[in-house]
Design a protein that fits this description.
Layout: H1 7-19, H2 23-36, H3 44-56, H4 60-75, H5 91-112, H6 115-131
Helix pairs in contact: 1-2, 1-3, 3-4, 4-5, 5-6
């Protein structure tokens, strides 16, 4: 990772640590990736993997914050380019990643959220559908 710091390398390293049941180190790898990668290099796949890892570790509040951060980062105007796992710019993948991220967040809230959070999530999803 130190020789080739990309989102894909961090995901592979973190999944290897998780496979070896080193959950603290895995969390550290994800946190290190957020510190070391430039904001344009942080892919939504990296944040999605991080949120799913936290969900598997039963850290639901941390996962919720990561999902919200990812949605805010992707939805903001300063998210210039989406970089996929091969390192190429893919503007068409931006909408796919956004819909996948929203779908994962809604499913997460349905599984682990209270009634108010679920309703808020579904209302914001429907509002976005009507705006588009």
């Amino acid at each position: 990772v130190s020789h080739l710091p990309t989102a894909r390398a961090y995901i592979k390293y973190a999944s290897w640590e998780e496979k070896n049941h080193e959950f603290v180190r895995c969390r550290g790898v994800f946190e290190r990736s957020l510190q070391e990668l430039h904001p344009q290099e942080r892919s939504e796949k990296l944040l999605l993997h991080f949120a799913k890892f936290e969900e598997r570790c039963k850290e639901f509040e941390r996962a919720r914050v990561i999902y919200k951060y990812a949605l805010g980062q992707l939805g903001s105007d300063n998210a210039v380019a989406v970089v996929d796992s091969n390192g190429s710019n893919a503007a068409s993948n931006a909408e796919e990643l956004m819909s996948e991220l929203k779908k994962e967040y809604v499913a997460f809230e349905k599984r682990h959220g209270n009634k108010a959070l679920i309703e808020d999530c579904i209302i914001s999803q429907r509002r976005q559908t009507y705006v588009d």
